[in-house]
Amino acid sequence: MVEPGCIIPNDLDVYVPRGGMGRAANFLSKYTDYVKVADGDLGFEQEDPEYTSGPFGTGVKSVAFYRHPTARTIVNIIETEDIVVTTAIFKFHTTFVMNYVTWNALVCAYPKMTADRVGLVNTHLLDLSSQLVRCLIKYAMRGFRALDRSYDWKKEDHDCSRNGYCSRTSRFVGDEYTMRFTFIDGFGVEPEVIDDRVSWRLNTRYTCTVKRCYRPMRGFVETGDNDALVS
């Protein structure tokens, strides 16, 4: 979206709120040539483990895969457990995938880290699940480096729990750290972010001090209606 033509994706994730899977399926069937793929037919690499990367709730209720018969591109319809679809994004395994596109905007929760191709791992568990390890390997092959804590990014001290790039800091979509880039021309055009009051804090395992200590902290995702969703 930012640099058209730079990358041509082979698959696209489309998020629909709880109860919206049927309407999405009807739209694809009526207006496109995409055909639903039976479970298992896409192969292990594409179907797993992106949407089940941890032992706790991912915010994803169900996933349906659609393939174009000639272009062979894939559309993944992801039905979230909440009516606010972005809650699932902030439960993802690492911060470098906490990005989404709306009808008029690109939203990136950790833009400076993502630009540096690094991201924080979103878990409080000392031992990583096999699904999460596979996700980390997948993105490592794409040039991304996963970090256990913000200190590992630039080896700089920061105000822990207050700096926007610290795992222990509570964030919300409308804060100063979130990039909201509108690609629609016009004076006063506001970027659509779905719900700018969605807030979250990452799960984290280690302190941000020079000497790394295991001190786990559970994260959360909360909607604008203050419905806490433990991640």
Largest sheet data = 4 strands, mixed
What would you call the shape? globular
Question: What percentage of amino acids are in beta strands?
Answer: 25-35%
- What order do the helices and strands follow? EHEHEEHEEHEHEHEEEEEEE
**What share of the residues lie within helices?**
10-25%
Please tally the helical runs, counting DSSP H or I stretches of 4 or more residues: 6
Structural class: alpha+beta
Strand order of the largest sheet: 1-4-3-2
Q: Report the radius of gyration as a whole number of Å.
A: 18 Å
Number of domains: 1
Instruction: Please count the beta strands (DSSP E, at least 2 residues each).
Output: 15
Unreliable stretches covering 5 or more consecutive residues: 44-48
Round the mean pLDDT to the nearest integer and report it. 88
Distance between the termini: 29 Å
Describe what is shown at a glance.
This protein has 231 residues and is α+β, with helices and mostly antiparallel strands.
Detailed description of the structure:
Strand 7, helix 5 (130-140) and strand 8 (145-147) form a beta-alpha-beta unit. This protein has one domain (11-230). The protein is built from six helices and 15 strands. The strands form five sheets. A four-stranded mixed sheet has the order 1-4-3-2. Strands 9-11-14-15 form a four-stranded antiparallel sheet, with no helix packed on it. It has 231 residues and is α+β, with helices and mostly antiparallel strands. Helices cover 17% and strands 25% of the residues.
Key attributes of the depicted protein:
231 residues; alpha+beta; 17% helix; globular
